[in-house]
Amino acid sequence: MVRADHAADLWMIRGLPVLAMALLAGCGSEVTSRFATPVEITGDGIAAPLLGLQGDPERGKAVFAEREQGHCVLCHAVEGLDAEFQGNVGPALTGVGARLSDGQIRLRIADAQSLWPDTLMPSYYRAGGLNQVAPAYAGEPALTAQQIEDLVAYLGQLDGERT
Amino acid sequence: MKAGLALLSALCLTACGDVVADTKSPPAQPQPLQSGYKFLQPQTQALQDDDFANPGFLWIDRGEALFSTAAASGEACSDCHNDASLSLAGAAAHYPQIDAESGDLINLEGRINLCRTRHQDEAPLEYESDELLSLTAYVAYLSRGTPISVDIEGAAAVWFARGRDYFETRRGQFNLSCTQCHDDNWGKKLRGDTISQGHGTGFPAYRLEWQSLGSLHRRLRDCDSGVRVEPRPYGSDDYLAVELYLAKRAEGLKLETPGVRR
């Protein structure tokens, strides 16, 4: 336990790495350096598939639902999807493909926090400038480029009819 | 150098919206203030309500026995703490607090261990050991129903600010803060769980997921791990500070050990 008369140290220890992190991350202004691989943002989307990969909607559905993968159902529901207990912290994504382009969906998965700085939605293709990350995940994005492309393929075809 | 650092941090603070150390203003209390109990399924509430079915009482019974077992010094906790002197009724509702002798911030576990080393000639107990959980649960139970009220003035102020900072700072691979779930999104569903206001008032609590009683720090480690944060160690300064912040934030709610949680 830190003693109260060392309280000043406590602030130094805590303050400095935070400052260093903020500087490394460039205070979030250098958006492209946050990503696991270079990404070009145009408007509110990422037009080109990550690493030029082709997505597969069936695999994407599994990424969306499975705990070991994206586990998006923690926060989002898709009507008709075969998954118990879908969350409602995020908006329902039923028919999201009719609302958003593939490029918009891609950026929202890859780095929603660059669009909405206060959002609860994690940035799944971000690998830098983070704080106190568990060693097992450090330096890695939460999802691979392939998993994200699979999600884009899956969500992009949700037009309100398909589940 | 100092001015430079201050300027830099001021810049970053404004640019990134990082948390400014704030020792003064009261915590943002969710309104209306509600215990985690409110967000449980009726059958889990029923388990907490029934002292005969509530599994937490297994630890409380063991704690009560340990409380009156003589230690190496020949003295039991109950020799000093009884109805006539140094009664512990209501005491747990005022932790964490600054220990006058050392100046450290201590929680209930810390106080129990100080009594062991200072008055009973015993070694401190390990966090999450059956003995420490049992004694902590028993002592907390003696305050069941007492409203939480902690002191955040004086030497505690810096700890309170540190706890608030931990609570409000984004961390982990998912880059989330405690605030985002427990101040901004309580009442909503995270898969099968309803996010509560994140109060520690049921702890030590029996969690169905653990199939055991566990400390508040164990619960904090679970929340941190969920966001893919490297959790702090049991009894760490950061978690003690968070515990103080949580207690102040919960002020007015009643201590309800042994809570039952999902």
TrEMBL record, chain B:
In this chain, heme c 1 is annotated as bound at 77, 80-81, 115
Annotated gene: soxA
State the free-text cofactor note. Binds 2 heme groups per subunit.
Quote the protein name from its UniProt record.
SoxAX cytochrome complex subunit A
Write down the PROSITE patterns for this protein, in alphabetical order: CYTC (PS51007)
Which parts of the sequence bind heme c 2? 178, 181-182, 223
Q: Show the active-site residues.
A: 223 (cysteine persulfide intermediate)
Catalysed reactions, semicolon-separated: L-cysteinyl-[SoxY protein] + thiosulfate + 2 Fe(III)-[cytochrome c] = S-sulfosulfanyl-L-cysteinyl-[SoxY protein] + 2 Fe(II)-[cytochrome c] + 2 H(+); S-sulfanyl-L-cysteinyl-[SoxY protein] + thiosulfate + 2 Fe(III)-[cytochrome c] = S-(2-sulfodisulfanyl)-L-cysteinyl-[SoxY protein] + 2 Fe(II)-[cytochrome c] + 2 H(+)
Q: What is its main location?
A: periplasm
Q: How does it assemble?
A: Heterodimer of SoxA and SoxX.
Q: From its record, what is one biological process in GO terms?
A: sulfur oxidation
Record organism:
Henriciella barbarensis
Name the family. Belongs to the SoxA family.
GO CC annotation terms, alphabetical: cytochrome complex; periplasmic space
